[in-house]
Amino acid sequence: MKKYLYLLLSFLLFVEISHAQIRLSSIKVDEWVKKNFTGQGVVVGNIKVKGYPLSTLSYTSTGNVLKLQKGLILSSGNSYNVAGYNNSHNQSSTFGDVMNPESDQDLASIIKGKLYDICSIEFDFVPLDNSIQFNYQFGSDEYPEYVDSPYNDVFAFIVSDESTSRNIALIPGTQVPVSINTVNFKTNSEHFIDNNLYKQVTIKRQEPLKSTYKGTLPGRVLRGIGSIFTVSGPIAGDQVVVQPDPELMKTLDPNLYRNLRYDGITNKLVAQAYVIPYKKYRLKIILADVADNIYDSGVFIEDRSLTSKKDVQQPNFTDYPDLSKVIDPNLILQGKKLEDILPDAYKKELSKPALQTQELAQTSKAPVSVQKVAEPAPVSSPKAVSASPPTTAAAQVKVAIKPVLMDMPNIVILFDFDRSDIKESEMIKLREAIEKFKKQRQYYSLNISGHTDIKGSLEYNYDLSARRNKAVIDAVSDLIGEKMRIPAVSKSYTQPVADNETDDGRQANRRVELVFVKKN
């Protein structure tokens, strides 16, 4: 009986693996950015693409091979080579000659070394809210042999405006860029997935490649000749025959090594930045080989993941009106300023500082905030931006009697390790705060954010922080006596308030923050 059960389980595993795969296809990158990449709250335009057609392809991942099921891959080689059984300890392809390195000003500020096979997408965007983000995974065949070496293939997500520029491809909760040397099997390993089937041996790095690229052809033809970019046969300079290690294979995900040829890949990561609503920015997604043109790397970008949302956890957050029904953000893409396209009726209701930038301090608790943030000042009536403009001068002048408000300090609800139920000691704090809130609910809105310590994966902790948010929302609803719809964001462990290396620090990070925002 045990024998038949084992055979059945083996068969089911085989069926699951056989259905798992990565499929790649050619795509018009500018159309993908406009139709597939952007989600809610972002308008894009002025798209530019650099690189060869085979370096940028669309993909779908079935059977949970990748953490991102659908999107775009940018590679420093032929992206068609990414899919398939990981049957070699290295994989190399190139579109340029090793004697002709390329250059990029943004990458030069991040890493020193010659650059090859640069692939990039850049475009202008206008966010409708104060926080933008998207999801990605980074993989490479430089893993694991070239960790802590100069062969540190580079990628970056550069967000810029007229005065600031910064890379937001960062390790969660830090200012450290994601790279082969910073996320691997021994450094920040909680963000890393090992896919290396081969023993750690000393090998001589293969010789750089000469380009075999003969010019741009339509995508359907390129797919047919994609194999010409793949190095086949004995690799010059590689003096050791490396065989898969059966013991290593036992520790790896068979779905992954049967379908992905990179020897390592990150978990799903989130690129995030604080921005000024209704202002034009530029995003540059770029990747390159460093030091030589071999051992390919790639970054997977998830469909529909570029979004903006209101995040009240931004340091010095000031609430701002929703102008999405009032203005056309495409005019800002074309170079117009917010004050130029805002209807006169709304200009009169916005105070003068609303059309000026205000510099906000960047703190260690907000590692992904931009250097300068400005927001429109709130209108005198929160409903004004969604209503029809006043038709008379008298209707535009409103005299408001300022109420005397009780102070509503923000509060923090702490949780036990891996738990989302609210302890009685924390419920006492919550009851006291909500009693005050009930008395002046018309003058305040409530926002919350869930956080965790660093134990466990990023994805698991996003789910845990969401469960903690739900527990607080349910408790607040019970205390108020009606179902509450409270804006909530899940932060996982990306914004710690204390050191995750100590018990006390981890306890302080297991929290939900309640922020009371004064209405105007």
From TrEMBL:
Limits of the OmpA-like domain: 402-520
GO cellular component: cell outer membrane
CDD domains cross-referenced by the UniProt entry: OmpA_C-like
Primary localisation category: membrane
Alphabetical keyword list: Cell outer membrane, Membrane
Matching Pfam families: OmpA
Location in or out of the cell: Cell outer membrane
InterPro entries: Bact_OuterMem_StrucFunc (IPR050330), Choice_anch_L (IPR049804), OMP_bac (IPR006664), OmpA-like (IPR006665), OmpA-like_sf (IPR036737)
PANTHER family for this protein: LIPOPROTEIN YIAD-RELATED, STATOR ELEMENT OF FLAGELLAR MOTOR COMPLEX
UniProt name for this protein: Outer membrane protein OmpA
